[in-house]
Design brief:
With 378 residues, this protein is α/β, with parallel strands linked by helices. The chain is built from 13 helices and 12 strands. The mean pLDDT is 95. It binds pyridoxal-5'-phosphate.
Amino acid sequence: MTNAINAGFAHNARPFLYGPEEAAICEALQSGYYNHSAGTDRFEAEVARFLGVEDTVAVASGTAALHVALLSAGVGPGHEVIVPSFTFCATVQAVLATGASPRFADIDPCTLCTESPQVLEALTPSTRAVVPVLYGGRAVDLAEARPLLSERGMVVVEDAAHAFGSYSGTVRVGATGEVTCFSFGPIKNLTCGQGGMIVPRNGAEAATWRRLRSLGITAPAAARASLTTYGVASFGLRVQMPSLNAAIGLAQLAYFGRAETKRKALWRRYAAALRGLAGLAVVDVDIDRTVPHLCAVRVLDGRDQVFRALRERGIGVGTHYPPNHLQPAFAHWRRPLPVTEQVGRQIMTLPFHQHMTDADVDHVVNELRKVVRTEVRR
Ligand SMILES: *Cc1c(COP(=O)(O)O)cnc(C)c1O
């Protein structure tokens, strides 16, 4: 195994390029327009078409997408935002960026998502918004909590960073009528290098986000060229998606069908091979409807030993995620979350990316079998 470091099983995740990305970046470079420009507009339109929605708003990252969506919903100091503790820390940091406080919620033990019962448990009079996280790519349906959330004027902002391409029922995530945030970071289902996107509920919302992402400036860059001034209408951030990143995304989107097929096939191969292995449970992602971002398992006993043993064997396992409510940065908002804490001790993600072959999956499974057997016997 001389080339083990480059083997598919050695990496927990890796970006995948289809080929035309380099030429697309060169073209964008030569255009001379590097900030938000025509290429970004084109990417917005193409993603809207792909999702089956009217419009999308591109931003610099998934974190910026959450930040902009929450800010425009009026979330700020004195408010609480319900977020799962079991997520990437970006979800929580986006809440803090608005000046609001995170209200950590527990998760369903099967989906590892914060669902209606956990949302309802976490509600307080200060709750202003809910950020469900579509863990692993599976859709979250908050229908049961919806009437109460609407009655109290709360906004739902989906963190669908894992879920680009997944379905919720018969429509794509993003086309359900919720405010939905995607990430196009390096290892997501589709990458722009860095990037994010928000799906608006109406034209007014989209216009607000477009101002917020570009320093509050009203006239689009093209129109500004013929004006002697420009309008600054409101507070704003600089979180546009540069055309260089949009070019990568546009090139990737044309091949998304391959991502869909490959990711589902890898996940199914893992699930079939691991079924019935004692001491281990595969986290279900509703694979028929989901374009999976992760293959997560729960190691029921001795996760740390299993993790270490696999790393020693060159297997790129990961932990997505260490619970946020136990992180020093968020200690102020800590409260007991029994399911999250148990899952946090058991969770392990297997190497999962589009460079992997069936043989890579089989290798991971074989090593996992050996290690779990040894650790269980101990
Ligand atoms: C990646 C990710 C984000 C943040 O997206 P960036 O594009 O990296 O800013 C937010 N939430 C979750 C669950 C993520 O995995």
